[in-house]
Design a protein that fits this description.
By secondary structure, the protein is mostly helical. Helix content is about 70%, strand content about 0%. It is flat, with a radius of gyration of 21 Å. Helix 8 packs across helix 9. The protein has ten helices and no strands.
Length: about 220
């Protein structure tokens, strides 16, 4: 069970990382903002940099976890093979992109039965193919992020805090019916966020430091 949980976490991290990196690169490369607003595409896709683009990365955590649970079936049969990453990519590209049952972009059904222009299919296929290629390379490979023991826990706590701050901000903006993207271009907002995370990292590092077992109050005064 412990190995399965570690595998699902690895798959989730690989999916989120490749999704974000490929999304940022190809959105700029092919100008998704203009692409998503052309012709019938604007009725099919939401704004490229709207509310969905902020919520999207958090949705990918759920998607990654689901994909990880599904891939448990193939973990010992396909992924352990010498070319396991290639088999997984063919599976994703073949069934998940080209031959998907829905009339989705880039798929045969989407090209034949949807009103999406051919330009949209051609400009979105590179991201899909590259992301689904990098993903199995990370999943099937023996890649590990090795952090010094001293900062491992503070780093994890800081990452969790960053996600919590972001989710909390999105929820608050939705409750107050505020524009979620209003602060996306405000350097001050990112500075405040960075300062808060720096404090979280510093406090956690001081509290978990093994060299001196001081009470929490005395540790905090040394920061």
């Amino acid at each position: 069970m412990r190995e399965n949980i570690k595998f699902v976490l690895k798959v989730t991290a690989a999916h989120v990382a490749t999704y974000l990196v490929c999304g940022l690169i190809f959105a700029r490369l092919f100008d998704y903002e203009t692409l998503f607003a052309m012709g019938d595409v604007r009725y099919f896709m939401k704004d490229a940099y709207g509310t969905s683009s902020v919520i999207g990365p958090f949705v990918q955590v759920l998607r990654g976890a689901i994909i990880g649970c599904i891939l448990l079936i193939l973990k010992d049969t396909v992924l352990n093979k010498k070319l396991g990453w290639l088999y997984l990519w063919i599976l994703f590209a073949g069934l998940g992109i080209v031959c998907t049952p829905a009339a989705a972009p880039v798929s045969i059904e989407g090209i034949v039965y949807s009103r999406l222009p051919l330009e949209f299919h051609l400009k979105t296929v590179p991201e899909l193919l590259v992301q689904t290629l990098l993903f199995p390379l990370l999943v099937a490979g023996n890649f590990r992020l090795a952090l010094p023991e001293k900062i491992a826990v503070p780093a994890i706590v800081t990452v969790i805090s960053a996600v919590g701050f972001s989710v909390g901000g999105i929820i608050l903006a939705l409750v107050l019916k505020a524009d979620i993207m209003a602060g996306a271009s405000d350097p001050g907002a990112f500075a405040v966020m960075f300062a808060a995370l720096a404090v979280v990292f510093g406090v956690t590092l001081a509290y978990t430091s093994p060299k001196k077992r001081l009470p929490l109050r005395r540790r905090l005064t040394t920061i």
